[in-house]
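Appendix B, record 7
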Amino acid sequence: MKTLAVLCATAILSLGAVAVSAQALIDKGFVSGWNVMVDPSFGNGCLIQTVYQDYSIVRIGYDATGNRGYFVVFHKGWGDIEKGKKYDITFDLDGQKYDAVATGFVQDQVPGAGVFFTDREFIHSIAQKKVMTVYNQAGEQVIAIDLKGSAKALDYARKCQAAEG
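Structure tokens (predicted):
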């Protein structure tokens, strides 16, 4: 397995965890099955988001305050996640596994885990894949995310980020 460099200070990650639901997202449109949005909590970082029938939410985007990329998965399958706490998780992109340290989030009582990475271009590597499968700290599958349309949606998010400055 590869280890994803998640090199951000604990304080910054904790602040990001608190900020994720502190301000409402700004909708910028719908592209290929994903909403393109701006998150004021992350320095007007642009992101793509999709919502599943079971109310799971997946976000992939830019944290402009930390000059980093991220993905966050809100899903009941996480179990008892605490906001701001760190969790060792694994995610798989079309068969290639990555170990990562995720930060806990909670939105509308739904637990979430977010992975931040300093290589913002890693977002585009995700978008070039077909499926991202995310596993909890016990190694159990939380969700398999169909990445169809994410490349086109992230192209719009990239343009959005350029416009946000």
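Remarks on this record: The chain has three helices and eleven strands. Residues 1-21 have pLDDT under 50 and may be disordered.
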